[in-house]
Amino acid sequence: MKYVFQIFTGDLSEKSLADPKQILQKLTIVHKAGKLAGVLCGWTKDEEFFQVLGEQLHQWGIPMYLKIAVFSELTGYQSFDPMIDYYGEPMKPYVLNPEESFEFRCPLSRKNRDALLHIYEQHYAHLPFDGIFLDRIRYSSFISGVAGIGGCFCSECTKRYEAAGIDVEQLKARLIQLEEEKDLQLKAYNQGEWTLEDPLLDAFFKVKGEIIEESLKEYADHFHGLGMKIGFDLFAPAFGYFCGQNAQRLRQFADFVKPMMYRHTTAPAGLPFEKDRMVSAAGVRAGEEFEHMAGSSEEQFKNFVTKELQWMKTEKGCSVWPGIEANYIEPIALITPELLQDNLCLLKSLGYDTMVASWNLNRIPMENLMALLDH
Ligand SMILES: [Zn+2]
After folding, report:
1. Alpha-carbon distance 289 to 279, whole Å?
2. If phi over 0 gives left and psi between -120 and 50 gives alpha, with beta otherwise, what is residue 283?
3. Under 8 Å CB-to-CB from 201, ≥6 apart: which residues?
4. How far away, in angstroms, is 151 Cα from ligand 1 center?
5. Angle at the Cα of 242 (from 170 to 68), degrees rounded to 5?
6. C-alpha 282 – ligand 1 centre gap (Å)
7. Buried/exposed code over 36-70 (b: 16+ C-beta within 10 A; e: otherwise)
8. Ligand 1 center to residue 85 CA distance, Å?
9. Mean pLDDT highest for which of 9-18, 182-191, 291-300, 336-345?
């Protein structure tokens, strides 16, 4: 197996949180074992960090990608258009802890879309990146209940719904009703796409998917024009659909995607966490649909990951580098070498040869790094 590592360096900060010496020590071990395939790192403004890291990686012939959030975070950047909820108010962020909150912005807004390009030009265009890896390219998930997946209702988004034949007042009322009833009425799931029984809600999620796809297509064209590769950080497809990510469609113009297959993470993007939130917001039937797909046993997340990665392997599109949690972070990701080995065997049995050791190399203990090198 070959590995791509993620390095979190801080949010538009002046100085990288990651120490380049420590990072390079770990990367050297992996490179010497012939298993290093790439590095996704960002998004501090500390140029020296990227220069030092880039120089070493390029000597080894390994690509360095700028990892950067798009429709969330970017603290300190001038201004954004907020996501508007179905009551007409700016959507409240989901606060995980005092250090981390999940706030999303309207992905249709021209100002929000252009922000990434401005930030890139200002801080990163002159640095030795081979490509860009886009994070938070979605709407909120069920983390804030129906309110999380119920945006956006700004004037631009409203026009788009109307153009798709949606009665916007009826849609708002339906989403408010959903908060009470907790029954999303999922009908069927197939390769990253859900069908919903209610045509109004079905159309709503389709339009959200189109908006995300259109924004990412713009970025892909832009960065390809600069001779760079582009990769997408995706939710596990069955959950990503509700956040506007249609994994199979997005694979048609990216160079690689990293679906987050976090079986053991009890925080946003972690499968147990997102499933619980989906069931509490979308109802028991959503849980039954999930179990219909993945089974109800203790192994359901393993079955789920297997099924998702099976179809992604055979369907046409760019490379898929599954994101598997390799770091040990209390209390949300207690990853041991044994858990890691189990996932590695699974990926190999499905024919995968590259994965993203997620989600922060700084937090990968040496015993977990060694477990990676065994495969
Ligand atoms: Zn909007």
Report:
1. 10
2. left
3. 171, 174, 178, 184, 185
4. 7
5. 125
6. 22
7. bbbbbbbbbbbeebbebbbebbeeeebbbbbbbbb
8. 9
9. 336-345
DSSP 336: -
Q: Provide mean pLDDT across the span 130-136.
A: 98
Alpha-carbon torsion angle 6, 118, 114, 89, nearest 10? 80
Is the peptide bond prior to 321 cis by the omega test (within 30 degrees of 0)? Answer: no
CB 262 within 8 A of CB 155: no
- What is the pLDDT of the chain when averaged over all its residues? 95
Alpha-carbon torsion angle 151, 255, 308, 322, nearest 10? -100
Using one digit for the tens of pLDDT, what is the confidence trace for 55-81? 999 999 999 999 999 999 998 898 899
Where would I find the H helices in 61-132? 110-119
Distance 153 CA to ligand 1 centre (A): 5
CB-based contacts of 155, cutoff 8 Å, min separation 6: none
Q: Give 79 Cα–ligand 1 centroid separation in angstroms.
A: 15
Q: How far is the CA of 1 from the centre of ligand 1 (A)?
A: 41
Pick from 145, 141, 146, 143: nearest CA to 171: 146
Q: How far is CA 338 from the centre of its chain?
A: 25
Quick count: other Cβ atoms within 10 Å of Cβ 294?
A: 21
Quickly count: other Cβ atoms within 10 Å of residue 151's Cβ: 25
Strand partners of residue 3: 36, 355
Provide the percentage of residues in the chain whose pLDDT is more than 70.
100
Q: How many CB atoms lie within 10 A of CB 283?
A: 18
Distance 62 CA to ligand 1 centre (A): 38
Distance 81 CA to ligand 1 centre (A): 8
Q: What is the pTM of this model?
A: 0.97
Sheet holding 229-234, edge to edge: 319-320, 256-259, 229-234, 131-135, 64-69, 36-42, 2-8, 354-358, 323-325
**Cα of 157 to ligand 1 centre, how many Å?**
4
